[in-house]
Write a sequence for this structure.
């Protein structure tokens, strides 16, 4: 599995930047090396079957540029080790659910996006990934935060915008 080989063991400590205008949002830089980013990019390309995310004849939503991939937990342990010191200890301001144990901080369900010039995602809210491991319809885990990993360098264009919450708009 290409995701398993992406990270070098014992690597980097990321730089942390808080975004006070967006509650709960942080920016981390230096999470992985250039060679790790290259291997992650190759894994994303393979998740897309090595082809463009959308061909002329393929009918999908304009904003659907991802492939869902389940990766082994071991593939994300090193990333979790690097991120854990800066991750919140709970699932959010309205949840007391604790961060998973070391090695399980990051969901193994990845949405791998690949954009071509002119592609975009429309404004949206990310939804939580939920798991019922032990009993049907009994929640055993969920994703509390979205983790965006940019594995390209030197691209032109492309941005992620975080909108300020408007209490008059139901989410």
């Amino acid at each position: 599995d290409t995701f398993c080989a992406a990270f070098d063991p014992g690597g980097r400590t990321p730089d942390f930047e808080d975004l006070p205008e967006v509650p709960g949002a942080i920016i981390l830089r230096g999470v992985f090396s250039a060679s790790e980013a290259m291997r992650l990019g190759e894994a994303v390309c393979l998740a897309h079957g090595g082809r463009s995310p959308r061909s002329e004849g393929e009918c999908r939503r304009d904003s659907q540029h991802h492939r869902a991939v389940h990766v082994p937990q071991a593939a994300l342990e090193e990333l979790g080790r690097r991120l854990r010191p800066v991750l919140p200890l709970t699932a959010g301001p309205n949840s007391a659910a604790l961060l998973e144990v070391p090695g399980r901080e990051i969901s193994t369900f990845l949405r791998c996006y690949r954009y071509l010039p002119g592609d975009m995602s429309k404004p949206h809210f990310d939804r939580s990934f939920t798991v019922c491991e032990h009993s049907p319809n009994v929640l055993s885990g969920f994703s509390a935060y979205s983790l965006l990993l940019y594995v390209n360098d030197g691209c032109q264009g492309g941005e992620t915008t975080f909108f300020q919450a408007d209490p008059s708009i139901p989410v």
Notes: The radius of gyration is 17 Å. Helices lie at 34-47, 73-83.
